[in-house]
Structure formats: structure tokens, C-alpha cells
Amino acid sequence: MLLAFDIGNTNIKVGLFENGELKSSFRVATDLVKTSDEYGIQMRELIRAVGHSPKEITGVIMSSVVPGINYTIEHMIWDYFHITPLIVGPGIKTGLNILYEDPRAVGADRIVNAISAFETWGGPVIVIDFGTATTFSVVSEKGEFLGGVICPGIKTSLEALVRNTAKLPTVELSRPEHVINRTTTLNMQAGIIYGCAGQVAYIVEKMRKELGCENANVVATGGLANLIASQLSIGMHVDPLLTLKGLEILYRKNTQEKPNENN
Questions:
Q1: Where is 199: in which H helix or E strand?
Q2: Distance of alpha carbon 226 from alpha carbon 236, whole angstroms
């Protein structure tokens, strides 16, 4: 089985693949204080909890946007699974032509998402990841990573709003029925949710014009993708597991392993 780690600023998404098929996935908090032993014990127990044995793991791949935790996770993988992980970074085979001015500056998660979306929907494709930051990444019809946009994430924006204003309360991140509201809480919720939806619609429209393709596919991932996608009429595929699937694709590209044709 393949064990895939997508290490983000807030959460670590973990996927278990067998013969190219995602069998289970789970999330744990990204914690710079936690030791490799704590992560190792946690991973083993989670793998057992979904009906598998740690001994079934034969390969590991990881992508990370949190450099400070990488050594801990790599050390954990070696100590608890006795495997050297494949790490998404410079030198890895992606199948994309990365046209960023400095390809090394592109977040690993953006590359993985781009590969996953391009392999599934072809190009041109616009990938939106609703995480700690909201990122837009664009892949051309020829498989060229063209770059994109980075915006504050939805939760990040809400936290900054509350932290930097004296009278605004902490509110739940949910969608109010109306845009015009009569309470401060609903005003804030409407501003965050509908404001993000408007931002997405505008950026996608501009990107499609620059691509010269009004029907370019749009793929959204991240925990809040469904919440925002439900407010848009631009046509959007939502895949919360896009990154994990991209890691499995990358692993096969770099190890020559192929899924079982009978699966």
C-alpha cells in the first residue's frame, strides 16, 4: 500500500492507496511541537483504525508547505515504516512544464493539485485550493503550469478581521440566507462567504479571458470548497481529495508503479 502525506499549514491530510485506489483518508493537526514518536504512534493507530496494518505500507510520498515539520515527518516515516519517502520538490518528475520564473518557489501542494486536475480533466484547467491561503493555479492545454493567484484564505480572513477590530465578535463560518442582514454576526458571515464567492467568480472570469477559453475547467479542493462552490454559477468540479490523488499519480510517475489493471 502507498501512504501519502499532504502537509499543510493547518492540517496534514493522509491517504492510503492500494493498486491506485484511495482506500482511506484522514486528517491530523499540523503541530510543530509534536515529536516523530507521537506522530508515528498516531499514524499506526489511525491505519489500524481503518482496517489495515502498518506492515502493509510499501511506499510513502509526501508534499509539504511547512519546512519546519519536514524532518520530524521524514524521521517518523523511517522509524515507524522503515521507508525512505519520495518528497515532492525540485528534481521530481511531474509531467508538467513549470513556467514559473523560479520553479522552486511554487508550493508543492499547487504542483500536486495541478497534476491531479490535468490528469483528470485535461487543460486548460484552473485549480482553486481553499486552504489557509486560497490559491488559483492554471495549467494550459499543453500541460504548462502558467502560475496563478494567491489570496488570504477564508478562515485566515475571518480571524484577521476579528483580531484587528475591537468590537467584532468571533463568529461561526456559515452562510447566511441573505446578503443584506441586520446583525453584526450575519454581516460578518455574509462578507466572508459572499465576498469570497465574488472574488472567485471575478478571478476565474479574468483567467478564462487571458487563456482565451471561456469554458476552461475549474476544479476546487480544500475543506471549504463545497461551501463556496454552492454560491457560484461558473461551473466548478469539487474534489476534496484532489491533492491526495495527485500524490498517488506522482508516486507512479516516479517509481514506474502502475495500478492493478483488474482494479
A1: helix 184-211
A2: 10
> Does residue 109 have an active-site annotation?
yes
Model pTM above 0.85: yes
- All domains of the chain in start order, with CATH: 2-87 (3.30.420.40), 97-242 (3.30.420.40)
Q: pLDDT tens across 106-160, in order?
A: 999 999 999 999 999 999 999 999 988 999 999 999 999 999 999 999 999 999 9
Catalytic residue among 6, 31, 79, 109: 109
Query: In angstroms, rounded to a whole number, what is the distance separating the alpha carbons of residues 242 and 129?
Result: 9
Nearest C-alpha neighbor of 75 from the set 35, 17, 15, 109: 35
Grid cell locating 40: 508515528
Which of the four pLDDT bands, split at 50, 70 and 90, describes residue 59?
Answer: very high
